[in-house]
Amino acid sequence: MIPQKRKPVPEPDAQPFSPQFSCRATGFGFTKMKKVVLVTGANSGIGLALCERLLSHDTEGLLLCLACRNVQRAQAARAALLASHPAAQVDLLQMDTSSVSSVLRTAQEVKVRYNRLDYLYLNAGIMPNPEFDAKAFFRGLFSSKVITMFATGDGILTQKDGVTPDGLQQVFATNLFGHFLLIRELEPVLCQEGRTSQLVWTSSSNANRSAFSLEDIQHRRGTQPYSSSKYATDLLSLSLNQHYNKQGLYSSVVSPGFVMTNLTFGILPSFPAFLWTLLMPVFWLIRVFTNTFTLTPYNGSEALLWLFRQKPESLDPYAKYHSLTSGLGNNYTQPHKMDITFETSESLYIKLLQLESDTRKKLAETQSAGPSLKT
Ligand SMILES: NC(=O)C1=CN([C@@H]2O[C@H](COP(=O)(O)OP(=O)(O)OC[C@H]3O[C@@H](n4cnc5c(N)ncnc54)[C@H](OP(=O)(O)O)[C@@H]3O)[C@@H](O)[C@H]2O)C=CC1
Ligand SMILES: CC(C)CCC[C@@H](C)[C@H]1CC[C@H]2C3=C(CC[C@]12C)[C@@]1(C)CCC(=O)C[C@@H]1CC3
């Protein structure tokens, strides 16, 4: 785990039944309990902007935990957050969402460190080896689908996926399955009597039913693993609500819009970052026609922050909450019904439970075989 200096602030309450905003007695009188918020992929882009905005919203009432795969980048993000919010408590965890053992180890550490988890932002994500279809893009520019194309990226992007050392498809493992395992492992801290917890997924407008198949949930055979993983995210969120709402756990999905981050810079690799910046006036113009061009991580994190402020019971499990920015640059959040069915979400859930069980068995076998048998 990442070494860090911890500030002498009170630990969250040890009582599982204590309400979210309760006070507890300490040697120095009564102290308001901190809400514990964990964000995956928090060291850059939308995740980092969210952390910044959460701390601006409530510096002292939150215990923010950044779960990142790269220790140096995580430490840099923590330093940046503390520079603007010196009174904040920001912890670090090393976690690679694409690795089963890393997720299980991190979950264990979370359970040891914190005995409550109020918000879990499932934000880490990748779009590896993207291929931009310039021909389809120019055809799209002169078609009736031009606005949809700019809002969703539909029809102009494909990716080449890889396989993880656990034998899972890279995009599926990183964007969806690692997060699913994390939730399952964290059940004891997420589902506590007398308290609600929220899961917030960074999904995408690129989630598309046509890219997803229940017969191939990992998208081994297609060329749109990213779109498939985000559609699966939408389905999974619905089934998590079905299975966990009665235990006080609620799940929602967000579409941050089109945001310029490391992920999107990778789409046109021959296009250096400064050229994207030069295109800003073009993007501002496009924003007049589609409010999905949020462009900055700050704007893109709007719906993620909005959900933080909502009562989870009031949220619609069939809605995707979109971060939107108007032509004049004003941010707002709007729910849109998702193109998903209850039956498909349940079928996916069953398949994920089966994969979880297979993966755990495989890991146990590898571990019992001992390190000498590992390649
Ligand atoms: N940018 C956009 O237009 C949109 C983005 N999204 C989604 O937003 C989320 C955040 O992406 P964004 O901010 O754009 O891009 P960034 O690349 O800036 O952020 C992605 C974050 O995920 C982390 N990450 C990647 N792989 C892993 C892994 N295996 N384990 C742990 N962390 C990992 C990255 O860490 P590291 O720095 O080490 O790579 C990084 O912190 C993603 O889920 C993405 O799909 C959705 C719609 C639009
Ligand atoms: C003038 C040209 C260089 C403009 C090129 C624009 C496209 C590269 C982008 C238009 C819509 C964008 C988009 C995404 C990526 C970049 C675009 C295709 C996403 C697919 C990125 C990841 C997501 O999750 C959703 C985004 C939707 C819009």
Automatic annotation (TrEMBL):
Recorded catalytic reaction(s): these are: zymosterone + NADPH + H(+) = zymosterol + NADP(+); 4alpha-methyl-5alpha-cholest-8-en-3-one + NADPH + H(+) = 4alpha-methyl-5alpha-cholest-8-en-3beta-ol + NADP(+); 3-dehydro-4alpha-methylzymosterol + NADPH + H(+) = 4alpha-methylzymosterol + NADP(+); 5alpha-cholest-8-en-3-one + NADPH + H(+) = 5alpha-cholest-8-en-3beta-ol + NADP(+)
- Membrane topology field: Single-pass membrane protein
Compartments in which it is found: Endoplasmic reticulum membrane
**Which Pfam family name is an example for this entry?**
adh_short
Give the EC number(s) under which this enzyme is classified. Answer: 1.1.1.210, 1.1.1.270, 1.1.1.62
Q: Which InterPro entries match?
A: 3KSR/17beta-HSD (IPR052834), NAD(P)-bd_dom_sf (IPR036291), SDR_fam (IPR002347)
**EC top class, in one word?**
oxidoreductase
- Keyword line: Endoplasmic reticulum, Glycoprotein, Lipid biosynthesis, Lipid metabolism, Membrane, NAD, NADP, Oxidoreductase, Steroid biosynthesis, Transmembrane, Transmembrane helix
GO terms, molecular function: 3-beta-hydroxysteroid 3-dehydrogenase (NADP+) activity; 5-alpha-androstane-3-beta,17-beta-diol dehydrogenase (NADP+) activity; estradiol 17-beta-dehydrogenase [NAD(P)+] activity
Q: Which GO terms describe its cellular component?
A: endoplasmic reticulum membrane
Q: Which Gene3D superfamilies match?
A: NAD(P)-binding Rossmann-like Domain (3.40.50.720)
Pathways involved: Steroid biosynthesis; estrogen biosynthesis; Steroid biosynthesis; zymosterol biosynthesis; zymosterol from lanosterol: step 5/6
- Is NAD there in the keyword field? yes
Q: Which GO terms describe its biological process?
A: cholesterol biosynthetic process; estrogen biosynthetic process
Q: How does it assemble?
A: Binds to the short form of prolactin receptor.
Q: Which family does it belong to?
A: Belongs to the short-chain dehydrogenases/reductases (SDR) family. ERG27 subfamily.
Provide the protein name: 3-keto-steroid reductase/17-beta-hydroxysteroid dehydrogenase 7
